[in-house]
Design brief:
Four copies of one chain form a homotetramer.
Chain A: E1 7-11, H1 16-27, E2 31-37, E3 40-43, E4 49-52, H2 59-69, E5 73-75, H3 82-91, E6 96-99, H4 105-120, E7 125-132, H5 142-150, E8 157-162, E9 169-176, E10 179-187, H6 191-204, E11 210-212, H7 214-219
Parallel strand pairs in A: 1-2, 1-4, 4-5, 5-6, 6-11, 7-8
Antiparallel strand pairs in A: 2-3, 7-9, 9-10
Helix pairs in contact in A: 1-6, 4-5
């Protein structure tokens, strides 16, 4: 390993997101120093930062590894309990932590644009719609709820469509008398989430202790 | 009046649709021979065909005028009762009658395309969505239900959005594993309905007695 | 006229936009104090502000009326010459002036959102597309060029579609590896431009001398 | 191998499309009897049908294998020369042959719908647009040209957009005075092409000699 490269560790290294993360980080000339999976643990070196792409059941292990490495943590696990979130916030007093349920840059930009548009068009009608593959059971999607949360003080209808194997489309539309303004995001591959985690790595490596969202990564750096 | 021109009568002549009909028929060199409205009745000549753009409450008057003129009838009134529909069908034994709740050519084509697509993609997921102005109270729209009726033997979800003063958008989407096919219709002005009535007039003038839909006008001539 | 009402004058009062402006201002309880048109000039009272919805050939008249009333000026005339623009800027040293080629609030918001998105997604591919009625001869639309101007330092392709009587749709899309973000504006009626002029009136009435764009009206008040 | 299973051979077996074909045919309980690739040739049994997912340079080899196996042929190679096409047509006198440049079912349905819509809306304006990944060099796409060919006797504009890694979107829009009708196809994965080849296999196995398109597979069986 060259001296300049940043060493990273990954938990959930062989999952679909974990595999993409390793591809992307490799291209970006990060060094894989540690990986952990259900039937695999390889420690080559002490990592400078730790990434968790696994599941809530692994969370305790993740905290133990972080305690061992004393490194910043990026957590991409979805479905954390309130208690687990609190443990992350406690940890962020001593270490920089980035946590998000969606590491897509485009979705972060959509959330920001929706907020700005709402500030100017708050008396217009608003509709959110989302389309996902037929196998997605939850309605509406978590991301649609994130968009809904941006429209403060207003109850906004969400339409959910289930079609084939659509990766994920989200639209927020504002309708005035005489015009409609819409913002649409379409995901086309998982790679985009791995790239968001890379951006988070570049962000966190020089940050002070604290609890950061992916919105901070995109907009406050 | 020149001998070649076709003479038409119109009931509901001063309403929004009736006014558009008169503009369009005038451009098409039809002659206005008779008009009737709530505070107006002008008979210049016996019409060769009769058009009703009024309301269900006027229906009895319409039948009386038709009986007087012995002419083919085009009826664009929405919200007819079952009994009124039956009277129209009885009438169609002796005269040609065209009846529809939507005289948009594009919607007729959409219905036909949806039917053909469903024949080939019947194991794909199907979603219908419609967007209308905020003042539209019924959900889903009558046209969305017409689209739903085309998908025989399958229960299809309809998403209804209400935005500003959108005239009316309808989409039916078919989703397979690896592709999505969508058919979308957007209405931009009332003129299109008047043009559909003109097509119905050109259709009915040489037809035998019978009960015709606007689908017949577009596809079976 | 009640004391609280603001008195306005309008040049080009009987045109399509002028007529909408009078409707909207009437609903907003402004008082029509002065109107001027090709064959009509009615002065009821000295207006508190002057609106020009006419054509470049009338521009000299407009300046003469402004000089007479000593009032703020909102100018919605399109196709002004460079010299006429300079005269407006000179005038704005002594009076508040609002000038824009597009008084749609939604387009202003789209321009702002496009600028913000570009700041975050400047290495993504960008495409602009616009759809207008078949009678529109210029390609691309002036509004599409306004969107293009927001994307500084990058040459962005514009696709122009001409379909039926579409009032005007504009989309800017940003494409990354794995996601697409699009912002779309659809105009559905002229009323929206009249409402933008009303917002400009509410904005200008208390402003200091200066030259303001409609962007200032929407974002800097 | 069970007696009931159909045995297939594949040329270009390790390419991206060839690999998908093997997955799909395996799920459909076909038996892989023969595979050929640049550095690999495995003959387990004489195949009942032969599929070519390779390149024009391999075409002569393909004809030689077909001559050896005396089997029906499905050819998915793109960019065949006129001479190669003629050889396929000659071959189809003695064997059933399916040839297409696009084995997506949805695109076939779009082509059929576009043809039907054009029959009813031939005086409307027509626009075609296509969006593909930034790496696609040809403009417009071959599929867009296939759509254009359906609109006989009319020159239709094609708008080409290049964005991120979009797999392929195609839209044909018909615009009348007062309405717009659009048909859109979005590809989301290569799997759909492999499924089209499976449909072609099920089609060809019981067909008489002849030259068939994928349109025949979808619409004339």
């Amino acid at each position: 390993m060259s001296k300049e490269k940043i060493k990273y560790g990954i938990i959930g290294s062989s999952g679909r997101l974990g595999s993409e993360v390793k591809n992307i980080f490799n291209e970006a000339e990060y060094d894989l120093a540690f990986q952990f999976d259900i039937d695999n643990e390889i420690l080559l070196d002490k990592p400078d930062l730790l990434i968790d792409c696994s599941l809530p059941v692994v969370f305790e292990k993740t905290l133990a590894f972080q305690d061992k490495f004393k490194s910043p943590l990026i957590i991409a696990t979805t479905g954390l309990s309130d208690q687990q979130m609190q443990l992350l916030k406690d940890l962020s007093i001593k270490y920089p932590v980035v946590q998000s349920y969606n590491y897509s840059t485009g979705i972060q930009v959509l959330l920001k644009l929706a907020e700005i548009a709402y500030g100017k068009l708050n008396d217009w009608d608003i509709e959110i719609s989302e389309t996902h593959h037929r196998f997605k059971k939850d309605k509406p999607s978590g991301t649609a709820k994130m968009i809904q949360d941006v429209i403060k003080g207003k109850s906004v209808n969400i339409s959910s469509l289930r079609l084939g194997n659509v990766a994920g489309d989200h639209t927020i539309s504002f309708g005035g008398l005489g015009e409609v303004l819409s913002i649409t995001h379409s995901a086309t591959s998982r790679r985009t989430f791995a790239e968001g985690i890379l951006k988070s790595a570049n962000f966190i490596i020089n940050k002070k202790n604290g609890f950061y969202s992916f919105t901070d990564v995109i907009f406050n750096n």
